[in-house]
Amino acid sequence: MERRGGQGRGEAEANESELEEILERVARIGKKAVSEGLVNANFGNLSVRVGSKMLISRSGAFLDELHKGNLVEVRIEEGNEAGGSGEESGASSEAIVHREIYKNTEAKAILHTHSPFAVSISLLLGEGAVVKPVDVEGTLLLGEIPVVGGAPGSIELASNLASALKSHRAAIAHAHGCFAVGSTIEEAFVVASAVEHACKVKFLCEIWRIQKSGAAGI
Questions:
Q1: What residues contact residue 124 under an 8 Å CB cut-off, 6+ apart?
Q2: Cα–Cα distance measured from residue 147 to residue 149, given in angstroms and rounded to the nearest whole number
Q3: What per-residue confidence (pLDDT) applies to 215?
């Protein structure tokens, strides 16, 4: 596990045993995300807030093979030593997005997936739209799911997601994937799973509706 930056002021940092526990939980959720089809290959990323820093998957890491060597610890406020997005330290190219979410929301963990139904719905609806789940679980757990614009790893995407996640548990980056937040990485996983399920149900219902009526419009 590679550490970057110094200790923040006034924020408790995890000790070695706590970091080991976090690593075990992160590795378990990474495997679950892959096994449930929320991500494939080395796409997607995740992070956990640890005091004034975040522990984030390394760029190109397979989420079902997470270990100390492919997780990076970087400061949230200042970033790494170079003050950049995290790429200089090997962190995911989405580190700037994770950082902005932590700085502007109460999130303690973030899971970013490339789940196919969420991506499909975002393409059908377009940027600025809102996904309104029709299934009971999605309605109760998620409410509405904003679709936001911005290129992967960009300041625009970081700002749009941080804004959307102030009042929502998840948002979908247009043509890219879901960003789910939680007080724990397990909660973020549940939210991401609920988003994909809600988008799948909505997609299948729309197919049935189109076949029945011949009219389109999610």
A1: 218
A2: 7
A3: 61
User: How is the chain split into domains, by residue range?
Assistant: 2-213
Backbone φ, ψ for residue 173 (5° rounding) = -75, 125
pLDDT digits (tens, 9 = 90+) for 28-47: 999 999 999 999 989 999 99
C-alpha closest to that of 2 among 77, 82, 112, 80: 80
Helix axes 116-125, 185-213, angle to 10 degrees: 60
State how far the Cα of 46 lies from the Cα of 26, in Å rounded to an integer. Answer: 8
Please identify which residue in the block is written with the tokens 């948002």. Answer: 171
At residue 110, the 3 state secondary structure works out as strand
DSSP one-letter string for 40-81 = -TT--EEEEEETTEEEEEBTT--GGG--GGGEEEEESSS-ST
The structure tokens 């936001």 sit at 148
Query: Per CATH, which fold does 2-213 belong to?
Result: L-fuculose-1-phosphate Aldolase (3.40.225)
Tens of pLDDT, residues 101-124 = 999 999 999 999 999 999 999 999
Q: CA-to-CA distance for 62 and 34, rounded, in angstroms?
A: 9
CA pair distance 91, 2, nearest whole angstrom: 9
Task: Please state the pTM of the whole predicted model.
Answer: 0.88
What is the mean pLDDT of each successive set of 10 residues along the chain, which is 218 residues long? 44 77 96 96 95 94 93 79 50 94 98 97 96 96 97 96 98 98 98 98 89 69
- Please check whether residue 75 is in contact with residue 8, taking contact to mean a CB–CB distance below 8 angstroms: yes
